[in-house]
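Schema walk-through. Below, the input block comes first and the output block second. Nothing else is stored per chain. Lengths vary across the set, and this one has 349 residues.
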Amino acid sequence: MSGSFHLDAVPVRLRRCAKTFHGGVRALEPLDLDIRGGETVVFLGPSGCGKTTTLRILAGLERPDEGGRVFYGEDDVTALPIERRNVGMVFQSYALFPNMSVAENVAYGLRVRGVPKAERRERAEEMLAMMHIADLAGRRIDQLSGGQRQRVALARALVVRPRVLLLDEPLTALDAKLRDSLRLEIDRLLRALGITAIYVTHDQAEAMALGDRIVVMSKGRVAQVGTPREIYHRPADAFVADFIGTMNRLPAVAQDGRLLLGRGELPWSGPQGRIEVLVRPEDVALTASGGHVDARIAATVFLGDRTRVVAETADGLTLTVDAPGRTDLARGDAVSLGFDPARLLTLPE
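--- output ---
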């Protein structure tokens, strides 16, 4: 990366940002969020949860309801349209110009800003080299693969040296292998540039891989904000627990410092009475005997590095367990499931 390329790490703040569309449809409840300069924040959630509406408010493509404010650094940009915010935006559809070459696409934002031709060419070449597509400069867009088009879209967004980079599901249209490869490239690029980046996706793996923090959204509201580890290991509610990864739920009784689970008991300092405990598949111990809950194998799926086991108890409870890849089990085999109390979760009422 050229030493001349420099991006400031601009913090972003949202204050009371809500959005109601015509007809009274409430797409986003009032949202307050502070994004640190240089941080990558990922908005994650199912379709219709409000994540793209939030991104469009950040971009200036939508105005928040009255009282909502958007700040880039100390500047209130709420009333500014996208062309005056100096943001870079990468869309799922790439939004490239088919009548322009790759180099012309990358330089387009500089041209509309009145940057002199020689500087446009130099900065476009710099970005093409950074994205490892310098050899494609003269090609038409219809001659590029999906991955190449996405690199062009990233180069075009970054060449203007934006204050903030916004990415709207940029990898969704790509096949799985290319998506994984580009995800790593994007992560390295964002870290190297130190730019403030806001990324929208419905893909958990993307969110976990790219986000310094993740904003999990549901029905127009923020369900939880936290690091990937916090979101995964300490979900705030049932929605987050079920949306992020796989979660097992087990009925239990807690009393007198003990958790009665199946035919076993564990030391327990959490809520008392009849409760539901949650545990991730990788936190369940699978043994031949001596565990807390007896079950039989209902199905196995070999995934290479691990074997995903579906076990059923006598009372009809289904549990998912991640065992080592070399685990050899067959449908109908009897197993015993063990639990570490430190790995069990309960959710707020």
